[in-house]
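User: Could you check the structure of this?
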Amino acid sequence: MIQVIDGKTFNDMIVNGAALIETHKQQINELNVFPVPDGDTGTNMSLTINSAVAELKKKAPDTVGDVAVITANALLRGARGNSGVILSLLFRGIAKVLKHHDTADTVLLAEALEEGVSAAYKAVMKPTEGTVLTVARLAAKEATDICGSVDDVEEFLDIVIEKARETLAQTIDLNPVLQKAGVVDAGGMGFICLLKGMRKALCGEMVVVDSDDTIAAENIFSEFDTDDIKYAYCTEFIVNRETYKSPEVLRDYLSGIGDSLVFVEDDDIIKVHVHTNEPGNVITQALTYGSLVTTKIENMRQQHTNMVAQENTAAAEAEDDAPAAPQKKYGIVAVCAGDGLRELFTELGVDQIVTGGQTMNPSTEDILKAVEKTPAEIVYVLPNNKNIIMAAQQCAPISSKKIVVIQSKTIPQGIAALLNMDDSLEEEELTAEMESALTGVRTALVTYAARDSVFDGLEIKANEYLALLEGSLVCSNSDFDVILKGIADSVDEYSPELVTVYYGENVTEDVATEMGRKLGDLLPDTEINVINGGQPVYYYMISVE
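Assistant: Sure, the predicted structure tokens are below.
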């Protein structure tokens, strides 16, 4: 029975929860309502929580309060997408309760979880039920109801997790969009993975992540010289055993000409990893045992030189992170991806571009750095994606500059807002003008279906073209002409005067020009412009005005 958790235990719980989210992120991603290739929720929650893991590894906090505060601060800056921001808000409330405590029991944990839910609901302007907020809220209520009678932390978490799972199953009925798609809430599932991972840590079941890339510890390569590397070549190979020579002979030979030797052998193969200055001789000896299956030789001295160069570059960039002194009243930061779109936004007066969008939501920290580099008193941020808005809003309380987030949900909306940028206006009037511009443009998107799906009675096959208008599914089909006709029919009801087609990185100019011509035939009273956006994911982004 565990009645109290200390700082080390809580630290392990956070790390283990992050690891379980990482191992299930693809499963979480596949719960996205539309089968578009976005991968948002699982990926964003994993990246967000692992920003905290990285900080915890650096600082090794001793108390529950220190763990909670470090986690909350890291999540604030590392938050990606709506799911990541909500996770950071939950921990902000949790840290508020735990920050002055060395240990925590079930009563304190319940209070912290309740405060976390309260912080999340307060920050979300229009909370939607049937989401992670619902799962967290009812789990927190259960925690409050039982904490007075259940003092075993393991039993306490078991009951809370079961309530969260029951609520997750209900989200499909609570949220009409989820009901149409026939899935439960992805963020809710991620939250449960976090709780389950934390619970597993209490009984020593630490989750092993296949790749350590996500939670890699920070290495300082410049702290030792390249010349300190005694053996230059990391040499690895697998050889089929085709002779009766004793493997011990090879093992002894390798031990004499190198270090960091890992030697594994069975009846069929010999697998070796060794650091040496004689990789050629190593391979020659290996061939006396049979044919090579794989081989890899890397120059570690050269790798180290490259790493130091990268580290020095990063350090120089870090020195430039000081906020830029204001040289004008207004500045603009925009989020987009694609060479064409970056060039267009720059031409329209954007000071800093943050690379991101669908499939690659930037973190709050990414946006904050761009804001700080902008030489203006007031910085307008154009997220240009609904899943980036909350991350952008998180910048306001931690920036030295005044930030105004224009809630542009698409690239065409962001462009419309930019076209209404007027430096002569006062802040309130300018903000109103830019926000008003968002309502004058509608956005159609053409991508591909990432998987088989059924939505609102429409059967969708993997790799089919997928058309969306204002976030709603228009049609899917393997014949692009059918997709084009569906888009034209859908936008025609708005009597558009101007349609601008931004074509993506996988579309040639000739193909895009022909697409524009066909769309013009379908919308004869509309001016059609075709522009190279170079964006990933979407074959076409279509602005309708």
